[in-house]
Amino acid sequence: MPGETDLETLLESMHPVVREGDYVYALWPHGKPLEGDIEAAVREAEGLTVVLRRDEADRLGLHYDFVAAWITLQIHSALEAVGLTAAVSSALTHAGISCNVLAGFHHDHLLVPAAEAGRALDVLRLLGRGIVLRDEQPEDRPAILALAAKAFSVSPVTGEPVQGTPAEVGLLRELFECDEYIPNLSVVAEIAGEIVGHVISTRAWVGDLELLGLGPIAVEPTLQRRGIGSALMRETTLRATAAGERGIALLGSTSYYPRFGYVPAATVGVAPPDAAWGDHFQLLRLPAWPDGVRGTFRYAAPFERL
Q1: Which of 9, 128, 159, 258 is deepest in the core (most CB within 10 A)?
Q2: What's the CATH number of domain 134-304, 2.40.30.110, 3.40.190.150, 3.40.50.1440, 3.40.630.30?
Q3: Residues 214, 220, 224: CA angle, nearest 5 degrees
């Protein structure tokens, strides 16, 4: 059966699967006959590189540094297919995940850092739906502001149409320029190069404790309820955790945000800037959350001017 060559079909059907165990690259001793369970080998002028399970490398006494998870894209891609490797590598690069590609006759295989296997699967599944998450760039801002204007044209509080430009547009414009702006916590979602979602988290505090304030988050209205907002929420949590942040607070729906681990902030000792917000002011404690936090939350300066 011939392999698939259409890129859109390849991306929609790639079905990434993680093999069991950890895998490593090792240099095979010169002149020694191959033995053991070698999964792949590449001969270069400098020597023979082998890929094998970590426990097998240990048994054979081979030295290695990089420990990887092995992900197989379960689609029969033709060897002459154009674009699949580039699309996969680009999506993982935007997520900050290194990737080594092995092409087999039937499938393509990816070796990614073992600790990033779960996140890499999430990125690939989003890519299969056409969604790529990446850092916001300054040149994206006009498109982001236009997206926010559409997303907030109906008030999330009253459900009524907003007269004039939504306040979130002006807020975003100020957040991009404020001292509390954190570049890699301003994330866009793209489909076919078009920005269809955005979320931003900026520096905030409880007393002297640094936290994050999430929002606004916006998704193209015609594409809502397709998992874009959820992907942006999960990406924010992953990035904040990796950066050693302690917690993230937001003001929003008590029926939506708890699915991402948010709880009423008051239950963990953090009071909202406005007591009227009640349980709608929520907080996600990250692994670095300290004990004994008590105080009132303070957003980045642009929020105070709303």
Answers
A1: 128
A2: 3.40.630.30
A3: 85
